[in-house]
Amino acid sequence: MDILIVGAGIAGLRALYSLRGAGFDVRVAEASDELGGVWNHNRYPGARCDVESYDYSYSFSSELEQEWTWTERYPRQPEILSYLNHVADRFDLRKDITFNARATSADYDEEAARWNVAFEDGSRLSCRRLILCLGQLSAPKTPDYPGQERFRGETIVSAQWPRREIDFRGKRVGIIGTGSSGMQMTPVIAEVAERVTVFQRTANYSVPAANAPLTDEEIHEVKANYAARREMTRNSPTGLGFQPGKVRTLDVDPQEREKVFEAAYNRYGFGFALAYPDILLDPEANAVASEFLRRKIGERVNDPEVRAKLLPVTHGFGTRRPTVDSGYYEAFNRGNVELADIRATPIVEFTETGIRTAEKDYPLDFIIYATGFDALTGALLKPRITGRHGLTLKEKWARGPITQLGLGTAGFPNLLIVGGPGSPTVLSNVMVSTELQVDWLTDLMKTLRAEGIEEIEVSPEAEQAWNAHVAERVSETLYMTADSFYNGGEVKGKPRVFMPYSGGVRHYRRLLETCATGGYSGFELRKTPLARTEEVRDAR
Length: 540
Hints:
The chain is an alpha/beta fold. Helices cover 31% and strands 16% of the residues. The protein contains 16 helices and 21 strands. The protein has helices spanning 10-21, 38-41, 62-67, 77-90, 180-190, 216-224, 226-234, 254-265, 283-299, 304-310, 328-331, 393-396, 430-450, 460-475, 505-517, 534-539; strands spanning 3-6, 26-29, 97-98, 103-109, 114-119, 124-127, 129-132, 154-157, 172-176, 195-200, 206-208, 323-325, 337-341, 347-350, 354-357, 361-363, 366-369, 384-386, 415-417, 455-458, 523-526. The strands form 6 sheets. A 5-stranded parallel β-sheet has the order 3-2-1-7-19, with helices on one face. A 5-stranded parallel β-sheet has the order 8-17-9-10-13, with helices on one face. The model has no long low-confidence stretch (mean pLDDT 96).
């Protein structure tokens, strides 16, 4: 086939639609028996997007925009999965998706300039171009504690939630982790469980979702102005549609700043980070914003001892991924919710009946790992991907990922990535940055076809320059002041390299346009594959 796409999540579906529409022989291989990617697997109670529903949707079809009606400001997992299934059915995408096809390896045939992809069931596919749409947060990680195998209750990974109904009524539930998953599920499970114990290593910042059902008036307003709204998101730094304030944080009178913070806190969710333009750039500005959020968190928790443990003090706001919650802190005001500070009193071991920390034993019926992901590279390095001269992608990225525009890496011709390290990804509304990349890649594929290009490969000089640019941009920010999944700091042994591009969606789009108008600068386009050139044959 012309193109094989691996992954049928948001990126894979969009790439299939666009590339098939451009006339390519294209197929998607999906490891699961259902599409949806992260929204297929993350079915835990309270799972919800932290981007507003009407912005977390495809922009390629005005008919689709008018047909689909969201019910809430921040959509829940079932509604997002329903939307993605509707898109697949509406545009007849399933006929070109092979389900239960988990890729285990991909090997580049230099002579044929093709990728040979092997799957778990023993089948193989050959393609001219291979596009990886594996997701940024799709390789779950679980901690390694002594005695985990001894626990006689049920253990669940939040990112691999069972499809069957889990009944927590009257049960004792332990939740390890306080990122988005842990914060979202805690208040929901607490409503029915006998007891919930939250095991917290690092207190995190969270802003209220201010979620609510969408009114008829709001729905009409969005649908009537979708074009303008899309343009606004594409021209924003984050793809959220919020433009940063123009005045620096400390240049504002404290009373006025309090009003701005208060308004952003009660309405903008994750957009709080854009209340002022320097919150993630200036340590003093960040300290002011962080103190405001700590105060707001404190107002939501009654018990002073619990409150002190929930206040984030190890890092500044936004340097780790902040969350958007619906009643997380208030859950600790319930009599059946307990906080275990495992930074102060670490988990010693799992027992047959629960978890033992340095302080006490916690009897549990369920243990839930809400411990996040091996972000940005984890899913890409799961299959063994071998490029030129037997070099694997894992070997190439041993000291950290290196790409050109987040789209490809030298030594791996005809291999392209959507949402890869070196692109805006997790620092943006992923729907906007995904569509931006897919549209660019579709135009690239059409150019390669029109010009008879058999092999496209990133140049080593281009990827070195791009990595230097990514590092330069992040040095202007505060992101490297904390360990986070942005920089590999949350996975033991992972290189501590900042992986997403912090220059913003708008600037990234302009760089893509410059690359394309410059004849796809940074990429070597070959009508004859390198392995078949006279110079290489002579060298052999």
